[in-house]
Known about the structure:
The chain is an alpha/beta fold. The chain is about 35% helix and about 20% strand.
Amino acid sequence: MAAVRSHLIVGIGGSAGGLYAYMALLDSLPDHTGMSFVIISHILPSSTHSLLAKLLATHTKMPVSVASEEMPIEPNHVYVIPPNADLRVENYSFKVSSPRTMNKQVNIFLTSLSEAMGHRAIGVIVSGYDGDGSEGCMQIKSRGGTTFAQDSSSTVPGMPLSAQNRGGVDFVLPVERIGRELNRIGSRSKARDHTAVAPSHFREP
């Protein structure tokens, strides 16, 4: 029988200036949070492959992969959206569609994440222009998930400020502190899951 998967999935959205935020966030995270991290960045459609995964792999011991159709979403892994594509979540695996929906990729992923994961969805918005991600954060909040936005340390504040102004953000923090809070959330989640299954070891035959 397949194991029941219940780990948290963190969707991280950004655009211009986002690379530095992704790196700092991964630098602040241990490699055993029990969560999955999916980075939705506005990669140029003309790119034939993503260098982002290779760059980020130097900032974490977690495996970093470019997401692909039906790829399982595993805990303690980092995934990057492929170029010229929209990414969604279904049954702890990815759904990829191409070509991308211009400047809506973060909203598309976070909305899908909220529908698939409910309160186990987490959204993070970092540096970038315009307002992509604002609606996705609202959807996550409406289903009991948790949302973060980068504070004034963002290189380009458009995306984080838009999410805040829409009322879809729970916490506004520097990315290093977001990493620490994510680790804390992951630790609490693992503790709850352990407590939930522990009584089965003591049931009467």
